[in-house]
Amino acid sequence: LIKAYKTNSSLVLIKGVFGMGERTQLLIQVKDKKDNLLIGTVLHYQWGYGRTMLMDALNLIINFPWHYDLDSNNIMDHNNYPEIDTFLKNNLNIKFPVLARNLYSWLGNTSSGCNNIPLDFDKTEYNLKNQIESPYQNNISSLELAFHANQNDFANQCDNNDGYMIADIIFDRYIEKCEFKFCYNPIQLISLESYSNDVKQSHFLNLKFISAYKTICKSYDIKVD
Question: What number of other Cβ atoms are within 10 A of residue 21's Cβ?
Answer without folding.
Answer: 16
